[in-house]
Write a structure and sequence with these properties.
With 333 residues, the protein is α/β, with parallel strands linked by helices. It has 9 helices and 7 strands, in the order H-H-E-H-H-E-H-E-E-E-H-H-E-H-E-H. A hairpin with a 2-residue loop joins strand 4 and strand 5. Belongs to the transketolase family.
């Protein structure tokens, strides 16, 4: 059900996640340069996490949506039969397949880039980014590719996902519900109310992956409003909690092994680096939330970095193609 071949080795899966993550960062940097602004640190922190979810953890079918994003057809309403969600980019809804709920919708560009790299969106999909009438929005909504619900204000998605998971359990569906969240959402009371409800109703088919990059709009989270010790707090609410390196695909995958048959929600705290892969961004710390270039010199420095990333990506793709060809020859020889 996933793009990753289930017969491939762990090393091959790790390499695929790494290639996709690097390509996502490169694509988001391209877009940030093109528009002189973008949520770049979010790509740095979450690229491996989201790639691992799609490639190694979630059971998704092939995309049911067009490669070219559809124009906005209006909000969902009883008198609007043309309204749609972006969930069909994650495959069909079926009892045995998983559902994906994307909570921090300011990460939308990261998700669009990932969907392009996975072939679920067309390579030119970002041409419609943030244009009037487009569903490829700066801040994603329920009609945006890969999104199933409108999640902002932050922390609303976990509550909606809990309702979906409960409904699936009542129907006897084996498919799970996965939620991607940012750590800043744990400053919201609704998040904790949702976890209290999940554990009270023994919702064991809902898993949450948290991009814990320790950054928010106003700077470092521990200087704005700390959420730590997050793992202990979630355990106190009754969740099954794992704390892992958010750039380690194997660790991210292992945290979900066997999940879906218990009676507790899963929370995986993925500790991440908001400058991963783009070291120059550390010069901006602690204000990393949104990147807008301050001078021509800074713009050119990031442009040079983009050229380097493109060259590295081309080299890695060529090496991967060569290795794949050699493996094929070995199997047929």
């Amino acid at each position: 059900m996933n793009p990753t071949d289930p017969t491939s080795s762990g090393n091959e899966q790790r390499q695929q996640v790494a290639r996709i993550a690097d390509a996502v960062r490169r694509r988001v940097l391209e877009h940030t340069l093109k528009h002189n602004g973008g949520y770049l640190s979010q790509a740095c922190s979450s690229a491996e996490l989201l790639a691992t979810l799609y490639l190694r953890i979630m059971r998704l079918g092939p995309s049911q949506a067009p490669l070219t994003p559809r124009p906005f057809a209006g909000v969902p309403a009883a008198d609007n039969p043309h309204a749609f969600t972006g969930a069909d980019y994650n495959g069909p809804k079926a009892p045995d397949l998983d559902r994906f709920i994307f909570s921090p919708v300011h990460y939308a560009l990261v998700l669009y880039s990932l969907l392009i790299e996975l072939g679920r969106l067309g390579p030119d999909a970002l041409d419609a980014f943030n244009r009037d009438g487009s569903t490829v929005e700066l801040i994603g909504a329920e009609h945006s590719p890969g999104h199933e619900v409108t999640a902002g204000s932050l922390a609303q998605a976990i509550s909606q996902a809990g309702g979906i998971a409960l409904a699936r359990r009542l129907r006897g569906e084996p498919g799970r519900v996965w939620v991607f969240m940012s750590d800043g959402e744990f400053q919201e009371g609704q998040t904790w109310e949702a976890f209290a409800a999940l554990t009270h109703h023994r919702i064991g088919n809902l898993g949450v992956y948290i991009d814990a990059n320790a950054q928010q709009c106003d700077g470092a989270m521990d200087e704005v409003s700390t959420i730590e010790p997050l793992a202990e707090r979630l355990r106190a609410f009754g969740a099954e909690v794992h704390e892992v390196d958010g750039h380690d695909s194997d660790a991210l995958t292992a945290a979900a092994e066997g999940f879906g048959n218990g009676d507790r929600p899963l929370a995986v705290i993925a500790r991440t680096d908001p400058c991963r892969g783009i070291e120059r961004m550390r010069e901006r710390a602690p204000k990393l939330h949104y990147v807008r270039f301050k001078s021509d010199a800074e713009f050119k420095a990031y442009e040079q970095l983009l050229y380097k990333m493109r060259a590295q990506e081309a080299s890695a793709n060529a090496a991967s193609h060569t290795a794949s060809s050699q493996t094929t020859l070995g199997h047929t020889g």
